[in-house]
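Q: Sequence in, structure out?
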Amino acid sequence: MRTLASAFAVGLALVLSVAGVMAQPEPDCAVLLSRAQDHYTSQRFDDAEQAVRACLERPAVGDPDALGAYRLLALIHLRQDDLAEAKRAVIRLLGVSFDYRPDPVLDPPTYVALVETIRDQLRVADVPPPRDATEAPMAEAPALPTQRASAKEAYVGVSLGAGSYSGERGVDGGSLVEEFRLNGGFSFALDGSYAFHRSLAAVASYRAVRLPLLLTNDVRPEDVQVRPDGSSAWVHVLALMARARIGREMSVTPYVQAGASGFFSRLNSEMRVGVGPQVGVGLDVTLTPDLVGFAEVNLAASFPGDAVDRVSTSGSSDLLTFLGAGLRYRVPLP
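A: Exactly. Output:
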């Protein structure tokens, strides 16, 4: 038990020790736009907008920089569900170059549709699009059909790692490495998450971990003896949890999660079922606007005490620790 607590504490310390380092923006417009792009990718939208506007405030901004700035500004507002400001940015973008075409592959579909719709309506209305940010109040902009870039997000993920078992069939390892070597095995997981808010998400996951120790019989003589031909070394875990991101969003963002799990194993041709809490800590690493890498450690307890290993002592439980790393992909929402 102490080893598992130490393992979880080590994982928590590793996760929460990572900090983001922010550089001061440079006065050059190209550098500011590069910084804004990094902030946008990391979903730090306020910082991204500040860098873009700092570029636009520079005297004699060239057309390439102006196009890049207004494009980023529109994308930032779309991601924040602010369609009015996104329209305003696109109108000014077309004021720089009315022939500008968004990239249908690299640019989000909502942004592509917004640019094309505004261009068509300006052409029909014969309204000259303004370039200067001080021109054209929003009332002069043509109306658009309702289009929303949802602030809510959904992700699907996959991870690989290892699981360690602590129960009556377990061996008390003297260290984290020994614990996983003596009691552990391969683990993989699939998960889906839906973010109600940028810092809070609901998570559903399936995990399978192979624990060869469960098929051994080197236990007390009075314990139930396992028949390997009617048993499986795999334990399956279904979990429902809430995940909260810690602090402001950065390219590397820590999170905590907690919820309930169900455990399923097969011993001596009998299905074993248990339930219990699960808690975890992790790190999200933003790779692209749609792809996130992550690493996490989870600790789960299964009740009753014979749910996983069919060995029970009074008031006992089976504990499992999971370490893993993987990728999550953002699923487009309507």
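The longest strand covers residues 270-288.
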